[in-house]
């Protein structure tokens, strides 16, 4: 694999001045390529600033991970080939702490920064730049000025729901450091588990950590491991809800009835601490003191999310307490609880973080708000003076394309308002669609038609910011468009009359949409709120963003498949300039960096997939299975959890060892096939056609070889892939020959597409999108 990675880089760097795109991710703020290259020798002389032993360790790690055939010499102070400088005299902001400057010439590598963290980032940039030829190892001559766009670039791991061994967390830390993520958020407690060792309250881990917990010494060592890589570790102890595990150990602290059995089901549960019980705060003072001593980071997360109020409302003692404290409702009761916890944390020298449910008018300004419900709560927090972190759109446990995460921005552009005088006519429709779990999604769609003949579409979901659709096409009553939502990317195909009918393909699976016309321009002014933006002061409150990898679908055996390479998209979005938004350029670099991380950092995405597939098919069929899997995707968004809920598998004991569990969110071969197809439909070059035919034939042959395999549970899916390949080849032939498609053949293909579009065994046949495009082109 290292040979493949090097060949890919060599292909990019054929010119005297190395051509872009360089295999850098995240991409630097400023980069200038120069003529020439630096050649590593068998001995690398390194000059380090005095009194910085951690930099010596970092350089050694850089050499080891990079597999450079050189010996380090830290004794030479003259003629150093790697010159590292620190300017500690300058005052630094959080961003400047991570900034670095890198200059590479044919004679020397100069790496300078204001803080050791910046040097570590610069060393990771150097790692990505290394190019190996048959006889030498080189770096391109260049100059880089770099610093992060956002200071908070995090990753949440959730060992509370499914335990993760320390070794697997350390591998994720290595990968985080490689792409300059700098905060590990550990969700240590929840309904299903308690992973923090308390020496004061040992029943917590004895009851909630039977399938695994971390000792305090293990966590201290993990914090040190992270610090060496420029990463902070922020713990989360989730209160007052998500506390079934806590309640099993100390039922006297819960609002009755206390939990009596361990919780294995996912979702939101009624167990909740009793805010009227003073002993709750005694426990939290002692427990959080332990947590604070193990985790030196200035921040500590208290959760605060998804608190079901039923037991508070039904408990006479709690109701009496609310009257005594003059608390108007359960929202005010949780606000009281939050302030009590915030005072505890303040006494421990910690700044409190909470999920966006903690936000209320009296929340102390010092509390950081983490948004999981949408940009709306992020903006609300910033406008109220709170530092804020975005996780909406960065949920990698919900499979999505990397492009979707790449487009997601903590500071999105405002929707521009149209000029009323330019609007010829507008119409609105209320719509809704049912999900298999949760309440229906409702919203309003507005179609604006302009005097110029163009159209714009806007979507308004309740309590959400206005969304403008892209790629709007109106053909009579048929309207199609695309937009990004909190659920993921959406492609709409609708028929708009007095009613609305059609579908929203959310991620890669459809929801059937229905609704009614509600208004038009003749009846009232356009009822839309355009252009919501943050003030410059509020924008400064946005610290950045954080990947969330919740544990329902995560085990150590598949964690890399779920997290990488899509985590690279988030890493770049949070570090690089907002203007760097070319998705094709990103994908090219992402694929190269994925190979690099696999070879030199320990990324196991491909390895975990192969190991998983070996459990499903004999070794003799593995190659065909890998090829066939290129046509399949896990159902995106929360479709998988909804499917599991319906099937009674929405719980901790449901095995994650099926075909869908080993599929990446998207496959580069399928993405390339769709791009090649779109190009051929425009250019119709013979060599493009042959490439498309060859790929379909490969998939078809693999499906044929696997079709009768008794060990395979997904035989129906395999058969459908085989049919789609046959139909695709036939459609290519018809289009190339400009021959009309017979009515019966069109009907057969349409039936195949309708069947393959649906979710099967929590999967979607991604190939159906390309075949649908061919069928539409054959019209």
UniProtKB/TrEMBL annotation:
InterPro entries: Beta_hexosaminidase_sua/sub, GH, Glyco_hydro_20_cat, Hex-like_dom2, HEX_bac_N. It comes from the Bacteria. It catalyses: Hydrolysis of terminal non-reducing N-acetyl-D-hexosamine residues in N-acetyl-beta-D-hexosaminides. One of its GO terms (molecular function) is beta-N-acetylhexosaminidase activity. Keywords: Glycosidase, Hydrolase, Signal. The keyword Signal applies. Its EC number is 3.2.1.52. Residues 150-405, 533-577 form the Glycoside hydrolase family 20 catalytic domain. Residues 23-146 form the Beta-hexosaminidase bacterial type N-terminal domain. The keyword Transmembrane does not apply. Residues 1-19 form the signal peptide. It holds the Pfam family Glyco_hydro_20. Belongs to the glycosyl hydrolase 20 family. This is beta-N-acetylhexosaminidase. It comes from Rheinheimera soli.
